[in-house]
Design goal:
The chain is mainly alpha-helical. The protein has five helices and no strands. The longest helix has about 50 residues, at about 85-135.
Length: about 140
C-alpha cells in the first residue's frame, strides 16, 4: 500500500504505453487491488485513507532509521506524524553512553601521555646531569 501510487506513476511513465486504461486496471496487480477493494466493499477514498494510515504507521514505527526526506511532509496539512518518544529517548541514552565512554577513554590516554611525558623529562634531566659530570 505504501508504494501503490509510485507504482501507478511507473506504469504511467512506461514509454511503451502497454497499460492503456486511465486507472491502469489492465495491469494484473492493479486489477487484483481493484478486485480486492470491490470484494471488501471499499471505495477509492477508503483506499486512499488506508494508504495514508499505512504510511504514517510505517514512519512512526521506523522513525529512527528513516531519512529526513522520507519523514518530512509525511503528515498532511495541519497534521503531523506521531512518534513514540521512548524510542528517541533510548537513542539519546545510547548516544550519551557512547560519549561517556569516549570521554573516559580520552582521559585514560591523556593520563598515559602525561605519565610518559614526565618519564621523558626525568630521563632528559638525568642525561643532562650525566653530561655535566662527564664534562
Amino acid at each position: 500500500l505504501r508504494f501503490f501510487d509510485d507504482f501507478i506513476e511507473v506504469l504511467e511513465a512506461d514509454p511503451r504505453g502497454k497499460f492503456t486504461k486511465e486507472d491502469k486496471s489492465d495491469h494484473p496487480l492493479v486489477a487484483k487491488v481493484h478486485a480486492a477493494l470491490h470484494h471488501a466493499g471499499a471505495n477509492f477514498s477508503v483506499f486512499d485513507a488506508w494508504k495514508k494510515e499505512v504510511k504514517q504507521g510505517f514512519i512512526a514505527a521506523n522513525f529512527n532509521y528513516l531519512s529526513i526526506k522520507t519523514v518530512d511532509g509525511a503528515g498532511e496539512a495541519g497534521q503531523s506524524v506521531l512518534v513514540d518518544p521512548r524510542s528517541l529517548m533510548q537513542l539519546v541514552g545510547q548516544v550519551g553512553a557512547a560519549q561517556d565512554g569516549c570521554n573516559k577513554t580520552m582521559q585514560l590516554v591523556l593520563d598515559k601521555v602525561n605519565t610518559l611525558q614526565r618519564s621523558c623529562n626525568r630521563i632528559l634531566e638525568k642525561m643532562g646531569e650525566g653530561a655535566n659530570v662527564v664534562a
